[in-house]
Amino acid sequence: MLHAIVKAAESNSILVPSLPDLVWGTIAFVVVLIVVWKLVLPNVTKALDARAEAGRIRDQAREDAKKIRAELVEQAQADAARIVANAQTQIEAERSSALTSLRTEVGSLALGLASTVIGESLTDDKRSAAIVDRFLADLETADAAAADARPSGARR
Fold this sequence. Notes:
By secondary structure, this protein is an all-alpha fold. It has one domain. It is 86% helix and 0% strand. The protein has helices spanning 2-10, 19-118, 125-149. The longest helix has 100 residues, at 19-118. It is rod-shaped and about 150 Å long.
């Protein structure tokens, strides 16, 4: 086969180069291959590794962001629940205070009305307290009876 290549090289064929060109071309190819193998390939490998590492870092950052977002949502929900509970407690305290104030006001009005109707002064604390309590109990009973008499969909 080598004899055929040498014979073809001597005949100046277009497809087969001459022997010196073939040798120098092979030597140049091997030198370029070694340079690429030793210098270029490690740099390309490092660049690909850096991209892979960057991808892992991005994925980790996304996971961390999801965790942080979930923690923030959970904290916001807990804060909202705490605020609602505090508001309900405050509303109940104000309602109780208003009810106490209203009872006192109604009691004094009832005493004044009873004093006017009876024509006597109701200065005795025990007697006036009993009258006020009886009046409020009657008022609550009447209110409850009126609420039961109303249709379920009706409001005041």
